[in-house]
Amino acid sequence: MEGKIVCVTGASSGIGADICVELAKNGSIVIGLARRVDKITELNERLTDETTGKIVGIKCDVENQNEILEAFAFIRREYERLDVFINNAGILMTSFITEDDPENIRKLFEVNVIASCVCLKEAVNLMKVTSGKGHVIIMNSMLGHRIPDIPPNMRPPFGLYPASKHALLALAQSLRQELSYLKLPIKITSISPGMVETEILSGFNQQLVAMLPKLKVEDVTEAVKYVLNTPDRVRIDDMLIMPMM
Questions:
Q1: Catalytic residue check, 161
Q2: Which of the four pLDDT bands, split at 50, 70 and 90, describes residue 212?
Q3: How far apart are CA 196 and CA 184, in angstroms?
Q4: Is there a contact between 151 and 99 (Cβ–Cβ < 8 Å)?
Q5: Cα–Cα distance list, 116 to 38, 132, 161 (Å)
Q6: Integer CA distances (angstroms), 113 to 21, 156, 195, 224, in order
Q7: Which of 79, 161, 181, 226 is catalytic?
Q8: Which pLDDT score is estimated for 108?
Q9: Which residue, 83, 126, 198, 202, has fewest beta-carbon neighbours within 10 Å?
């Protein structure tokens, strides 16, 4: 990963922040996008003087298409290419489908799906016109593959969140077919972890959270590093990661 130009959305905390730090430690220049840009800049404090990589923070609310376009324009202007894009930004809403406010539904899909489409379009096109190759990682969830059964006496905790993650799975598959048709050597990998110990869990049913085993953010980061270090001849489409019971 030495010298690679990497862009990570949702970079200010949790999985995104850990990915930024670890890839910078491995020599990458990591451009982190998030609303809390000060939090991204602070991640450099976790790097040592011997680290050859660095982390650059850009304020980007993925609900704002103009900010997405400006962020990718900055990458093209300052670094002239993009080697890796990690689509990590996302939000959790767990209201009942039968009770949810339409504005909340729009916001969920705006952040988790529409913003992902815009970011992926910009990332792939930047790779296409510069180096001509690259790697895109879409951070999904096990809830994008299946929804676990919940005891009938427990309030269902998922709402429309799994629907947005199922959309990302289909998005990855469709994009992979497009790139194959265009004969672009850009890898698309969907990584789907189970429950991970991050601040997003505060939005879940805490009774359920306490019951279930959880991954650490570094477990997901290690998966990202493994995928990115595969040789050109290897393509990993989907990676599902679950904690041991």
A1: yes
A2: confident
A3: 33
A4: no
A5: 23, 21, 15
A6: 26, 22, 20, 21
A7: 161
A8: 96
A9: 202
Q: DSSP letters along the chain, please? A: -TT-EEEEESTTSHHHHHHHHHHHHTT-EEEEEES-HHHHHHGGGGS-TT---EEEEEE--TT-HHHHHHHHHHHHHHHS--SEEEE---------TTT--HHHHHHHHIIIIIHHHHHHHHHHHHHHHTTS-EEEEEE--GGGT------TTS----TTHHHHHHHHHHHHHHHHHHHHHTT--EEEEEEEES-B-SGGGGGS-HHHHHHS--B-HHHHHHHHHHHHTS-TT----EEEE----
Least confident of 21-30, 199-208, 218-227, 231-240: 199-208
**Spatial contact of 88 and 11, defined as CB atoms under 8 Å apart:** yes
Angstrom distance (rounded) from CA 88 to CA 16: 6
Burial of 103 (0-12, 13-18, 19+ CB in 10 A): exposed
pLDDT tens digit sequence for 155-201: 888 899 999 999 999 999 999 999 999 999 999 999 999 989 888 77
The span from the CA of 24 to the CA of 29, in Å, is 6
User: In which band, very low, low, confident or very high, does the pLDDT at 69 lie, cut at 50, 70 and 90?
Assistant: very high
